[in-house]
Amino acid sequence: MSGEPNTSDKERVIFHVDLDAFYVEAERQNDPSLIGKPVVIGGIGPRGVVATASYEARKFGVHSAMATAVARRLCPQAIYLRGNHDLYRTVSKKFMNILREYSPNVVPVSVDEAYLDMTGTERLYGETIDTADQIRKAVRDQLGLPASIGIGPSKLVAKVSTEHAKPDGVFQVRLQEAESFFAPQPVRNLPGIGPKTGATLAKLEISTLGQLAAAPVGPLRRALGPNHADYVQRRAKGIDNAPLKERVKAKSISAETTFETDVSRHSELEKVLKSLSERVGTRLRKSGLRARGASIKLRYGDFSTITRQRTFVAPGDGDQLIYDTAHTLLVTAMRARGDAIRLLGVSVTGLGEQAAQLSLLDQNPMSDSDTSEALDTIRERFGSEAISWGSV
Ligand code: DCP
Ligand code: MG
Q: Which of 23, 146, 154, 184 could join 41 via S-S bond, C-beta 3.0 to 4.6 A?
């Protein structure tokens, strides 16, 4: 009767802020000759992997996690750079500090993205969309970097909105629009649905989020397990009540491979160990964190399994550091038992507060829950098998 909106007092306003082509744009600040050109950053060796590509290079099909060799074929004219992770961490810190001027509740989730709780700030800043533009302008003016912002009633909807805001834009989805916004999108657009779950859903002839939301729960639960089925179905409807900060303690990032036939040749194991170390290193750097140590997991032909762990001299995030440590562990383990190996895994450990303090947020130490948020993002990006969790 009074004409007051009846949902707005309950609807949260969450911003998901994500820098565009972050590593490339950071490099362009140092070297303006890179502006407007296709640029690819990542491993430039024969087995290197693309960390990111400028939007000019993306037009040719180049994207993150692609083999650099493939990128070179698609876009030979691009400028290929190794990248400078110390620079990215420094810029990341400044970026997070700008965001903190707009909300007391900023949760960094990776080196270039964060959630901001902007609920109830309309009186302070005016229209929500205008506030987003003010933030983008501040980041552009102070750091020279383009940022995109997705706005939603939850972290989930805000994050998916960001993909629609990119590059260099804002996109807002309101609570009552969330389900219809999600419905036509492919299931893989939902954070948390990786290649594995995507393939399982494809077998059930579920390709869009609308189909997932409407799917009969029985077959879905049998295919995904009851908890995961309920979780993804809720999220497919755009429902996410997760608080900005979640209380889960992350311990490690890992990657592992099961061989088709058991392997005992050193050279082959080393090759796989290298690639696993690089995968773990990529995820670690993307998190903006450093690790205190690395560990390996070995499963022998008879299924007996061992893990061996070693602490770094100082916290770090480099592929070489991870590989060298894992390699030492592997050599020692193989000297003790030379049997053929069925599964090989590498993980980095000790991603707690102290390691984080050294990297992302020197002046504003990252809490464990921030760390878990960072890892949550990685899990969304790379699949849940990438991350292992400790108990709270
Ligand atoms: N990154 C990486 N390996 C990946 C994905 C990302 O090393 N597989 C690094 C490089 C990116 C940075 O993390 O610049 C941020 O990741 P984003 O996914 O946000 O990608 P970009 O910022 O590069 O591009 P955009 O956000 O515009 O899609
Ligand atoms: Mg980004």
A: 23
Domain 183-236 has CATH 1.10.150.20: yes
Fill in the DSSP letter of residue 208: B
Residues with CB under 5 A from ligand 2 (ion): 18-19, 22, 112
Average pLDDT over residues 316-342: 95
Pocket of ligand 1 (CB under 6 A): 18-23, 51-52, 64-65, 111-113, 166-167, 282, 285-286
Residue 204 is given by DSSP the state T
With cut-offs at 50, 70 and 90, classify the pLDDT of residue 47: confident
Share of the chain above pLDDT 90, in %: 74
What average pLDDT is seen over the chain?
87
Asked whether 22 and 55 are in contact (CB, 8 A), the reply is no
| Best CATH choice for the domain 10-174 from the list 3.30.1510.10, 1.10.3720.10, 3.30.70.270, 3.30.1050.10 | 3.30.70.270
Summarised one tens digit per residue, pLDDT across range 127-139 is 899 999 999 999 9
